[in-house]
């Protein structure tokens, strides 16, 4: 798990302060589901909550743990005996019932430090049915001063009964200005705002993913994938060429990319007040939705025709993109599930659906 300090993420500070106030006044729930897009800091915020729950002298003003007590020193090294971090044994694998039984045993043991005990379950949506049933028993018998945080990209894959036993924390996408300012501080004098903005757009607004792109220089490959997707969408390229591009990337990352692109273009098409977006990835290709013109030229063309026809055409294409989004999201949930689906077959199906979406 990533141990970056969530208190350094400006888009999480208000939420962390609110949770710490809840702890101070005794209203913090025993179980939470922390969800949201990748790259927002879900695991980091769970670890930050664990840190102030086990701090021996937390800041009464809601500004996080003291950072100096024995509990904070143990948390800094990931060795606090009252903080349990659980994740699948291998990336992409299921959370097994053995891991959940370990959690069940853990919550029945008294605190070593005499305070709170915290468990963080990463990739909670990866539980198989046996693990889900075992976890439900733990949730139904909460222990005093014991807190459980389920971290997930796909809360819909959790059983309805588990969801009903937990409070929800959904991390929002921060404003562009907030993310840029955070990236600027990290980069110092060599900050390239235009490049950072492109990274944020390619990352769907998730600042941690954007920062990773900025440092590992993966933006060109991501842009190439998006161009391949839009080319297939508009009929310029074949489903096979899109599949080849998708297979070059990690599956869940590739699907999240095209999901974000589909949402972006659907919004552009359905927003009748939307003007040309010079920052959008490959807006020239987007003109192929109706013609070979650039997006700006397309806007000018449809604004010259009958207003009702203009609205009808855009709504038709926009709704088709929304339906494609639903199919991509369905595939994302399948790939993220613990059932080990045939990834290549899912991607092939998505490529075919993409090529047919606007026909």
TrEMBL record:
**EC class name:** transferase
Record Pfam families: DNA_pol3_delta2
Keyword Secreted annotated:
no
Query: Could you tell me the EC number(s) of this protein?
Result: 2.7.7.7
Q: Which GO terms of the molecular function aspect are on file?
A: 3'-5' exonuclease activity; DNA-directed DNA polymerase activity
Gene Ontology BP, a term: DNA-templated DNA replication
Q: Where in this chain does the entry annotate a coiled-coil region?
A: none
Q: What GO CC terms are in its UniProt record?
A: DNA polymerase III complex
Q: Does the keyword Transferase apply?
A: yes
Keywords for this protein = DNA-directed DNA polymerase, Nucleotidyltransferase, Transferase
Q: Which reaction does it catalyse?
A: DNA(n) + a 2'-deoxyribonucleoside 5'-triphosphate = DNA(n+1) + diphosphate
Output the NCBIfam families linked to this UniProt entry.
Answer: holB
**What PANTHER family does UniProt report for this protein, alphabetically?**
DNA POLYMERASE III SUBUNIT DELTA (PTHR11669:SF8), REPLICATION FACTOR C / DNA POLYMERASE III GAMMA-TAU SUBUNIT (PTHR11669)
Q: Spell out the protein name for this chain.
A: DNA-directed DNA polymerase
Instruction: State the species of origin.
Output: OM182 bacterium BACL3 MAG-120619-bin3
């Amino acid at each position: 798990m990533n141990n970056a300090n969530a208190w350094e993420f400006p888009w999480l500070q208000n939420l962390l302060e609110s949770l710490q106030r809840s702890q101070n006044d005794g209203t913090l729930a025993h179980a939470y589901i922390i969800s949201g897009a990748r790259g927002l800091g879900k695991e980091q915020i769970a670890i930050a909550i664990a840190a102030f729950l086990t701090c021996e002298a937390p800041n009464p003003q809601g500004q996080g743990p003291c950072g100096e007590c024995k509990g904070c020193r143990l948390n800094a090294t990931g060795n606090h005996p009252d903080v349990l971090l659980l994740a699948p044994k291998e990336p992409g694998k299921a959370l097994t019932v053995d891991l959940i039984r370990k959690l069940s045993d853990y919550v029945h043991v008294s605190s070593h430090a005499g305070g709170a005990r915290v468990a963080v379950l990463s990739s909670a949506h990866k539980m198989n049915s046996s693990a889900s049933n075992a976890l439900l028993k733990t949730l139904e018998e909460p222990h005093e001063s014991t807190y459980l945080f389920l971290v997930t990209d796909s809360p819909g894959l959790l059983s309805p009964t588990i969801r009903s036993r937990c409070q929800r924390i959904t991390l929002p996408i921060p404003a562009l200005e907030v993310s840029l300012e955070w990236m600027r501080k990290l980069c110092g004098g060599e900050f390239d705002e235009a490049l950072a903005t492109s990274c944020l757009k390619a990352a769907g607004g998730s600042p941690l993913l954007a920062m990773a792109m900025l440092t590992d220089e993966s933006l060109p490959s991501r842009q190439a994938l998006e161009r391949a997707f839009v080319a297939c969408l508009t009929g310029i390229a074949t489903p096979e060429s899109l599949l080849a591009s998708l297979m070059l990337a990690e599956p869940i990352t590739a699907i999240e990319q095209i999901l974000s692109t589909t949402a972006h273009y659907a919004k552009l098409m359905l927003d009748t007040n939307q003007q040309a977006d010079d920052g959008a990835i490959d807006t020239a290709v987007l003109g192929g939705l109706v013609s070979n013109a650039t997006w700006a030229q397309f806007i000018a063309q449809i604004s010259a025709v009958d207003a009702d026809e203009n609205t009808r055409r855009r709504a038709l294409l926009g709704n088709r993109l929304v339906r494609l989004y639903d199919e991509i999201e369905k595939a994302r949930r399948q790939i993220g599930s613990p059932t080990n689906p045939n990834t290549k077959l899912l991607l092939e199906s998505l490529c075919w659906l993409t090529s047919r979406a606007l026909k």
